[in-house]
Amino acid sequence: MIMLTLIQFSYSQCHHYFLKQFHKLIALLKEKGDPSVY
């Protein structure tokens, strides 16, 4: 049971990290004025 919670926790941490990276990428593309973002 504890193991499952640990996996869920690490998964949510990874998910959060990737979301942050993804938003950074979007911001970078918007800065460059990439029309494909909008």
TrEMBL record:
Protein name (Swiss-Prot/TrEMBL): Uncharacterized protein
Organism: Candidatus Pantoea floridensis
